[in-house]
Design a protein that fits this description.
- The structure is a single chain.
- By secondary structure, the chain is an alpha/beta fold.
- The protein has two domains: 157 residues, Medium-chain alcohol dehydrogenases, catalytic domain (Quinone Oxidoreductase, Chain A, domain 1, Alpha-Beta Complex); 142 residues, Medium-chain alcohol dehydrogenases, catalytic domain (Quinone Oxidoreductase, Chain A, domain 1, Alpha-Beta Complex).
- It contains eleven helices and 15 strands.
- The strands form three sheets. Strands 3, 4, 5, 6, 7, 14 and 15 form a seven-stranded mixed β-sheet that branches. A six-stranded parallel β-sheet has the order 10-9-8-11-12-13, with helices on both faces. Strands 1-2 form a two-stranded antiparallel ribbon.
- Helix 8 links the parallel strand 11 and strand 12.
- The protein is globular.
Length: 328
């Protein structure tokens, strides 16, 4: 039996290397499942891998897409948690393995699969992987947020928007930064208490005004190098700056004096390499969150599998607000 899948066999521009071809339907091994994909969530990590800027391929070919949602098609030996036809969402599919979610069927380890509530669509389920898990890890790796003040940088970004929602669920007061009125509205819809425009406002001054000169407990940072000096000024003594991405300056001098004087902690987050115990905590909390509050899912654009090139171009354009979804 064959299936249709997006693939690439080498790095390069999307238009040059991505194609859709017929592959053999994968069969599950021990503790593996095959999911019939309904929707694939594309992330910046997928375009970075395809372009060759993150790591080497783990095989001679790659199906892109780490996140997605669908139904269980087949289970391997030792799988007891899933039934044929069960609705699920999946994550980490394309990390150090060639079987991504931009295909009619996806082979996954059983720990990469989570039951999907009937209350959520497959498109919404495809949003729950890397972005939501990253947001949770950044927020809660230092403990609960009840009564804390959190600043989420770039609140219109996909991870940041979920960080706003999860921080509010966790009991925090949430500040966020944006660069336009449209992005401000997007951040407000997620529940941000204070939205600051870094193009027109003095962020240090505004944070001091809002917090009565106390500063914030945690910063969730999307561009570590660009904002490190700013964060050293707005964090409380003993505060934490957690980064999950950088745009430029992967190596840089640190403002050691400012950081040391406040006993500030710098933390780095990569959701793919957390421990199984940390992963279980995150998924448990996501399920609790979903049970009490329907998240705000922002889907910017939807494509068909045959439009996989366009899905990568949409991410690389930098113009979207929300997820890019491929409907299988």
């Amino acid at each position: 039996m064959m299936m249709k899948a997006a693939t690439y066999h080498g790095f390069g521009k999307a238009i040059d290397v991505l194609k859709v071809e017929q592959l053999a339907l994968p069969r599950p091994g021990t503790k593996q499942v095959v999911v019939k994909m309904a929707s694939c969530g594309m992330n910046p990590s997928d375009t970075k891998l395809r372009s060759g800027t993150s790591r080497a391929l783990t095989d001679s070919w790659q199906i892109p897409g780490s996140d997605g949602a669908g139904t269980i098609h087949e289970v391997g030996d030792g799988v007891t948690s899933f039934q044929i036809g069960q609705r699920v969402w999946v994550f980490n599919a394309a990390f150090l393995r060639p079987h991504g979610t931009a295909a009619e069927y996806c082979l996954l380890e059983d720990w990469m699969v989570v039951p999907l509530s009937e209350d959520l669509s497959f498109q919404e389920g495809a949003c729950l992987g890397i972005p939501v898990m990253t947001a949770h890890r950044c927020l809660f790796s230092d403990g609960d947020l009840q009564g804390k003040i959190v600043l989420v940088a770039g609140g219109a970004g996909v991870v940041a928007n979920y960080a706003i929602q999860l921080a509010k669920w966790g009991g925090a007061t949430v500040l966020t930064t944006v660069s336009s009125d449209i992005k401000a509205e997007h951040a407000k819809r997620a529940g941000a208490d204070f939205v600051l425009n870094y193009k027109t406002e003095d962020i240090v001054q505004r944070v001091n005004e809002i917090t009565n000169q106390q500063g914030v407990d945690r910063v969730i940072e999307v561009d570590f190098g660009a904002n490190l000096h700013l964060n050293a000024q707005i964090l409380k003594p003993g505060g934490t700056s957690v980064m999950y991405a950088y745009v430029a300056a992967p190596t840089m001098p640190l403002p050691i004096g400012a950081l040391m004087s406040k006993n500030i902690t710098l933390k780095f987050t990569l959701i793919y390499t957390i421990t199984p115990e940390q992963r279980e905590t995150i998924i448990s909390d996501i399920n609790k969150w979903l049970a009490v509050k329907k998240p705000f899912f922002a889907i910017a654009e939807e494509f068909s599998l045959d439009q996989v090139v366009d899905s990568h171009l949409a991410i690389e354009s930098g113009n979207k607000i929300g997820h890019v979804i491929i409907n299988i």
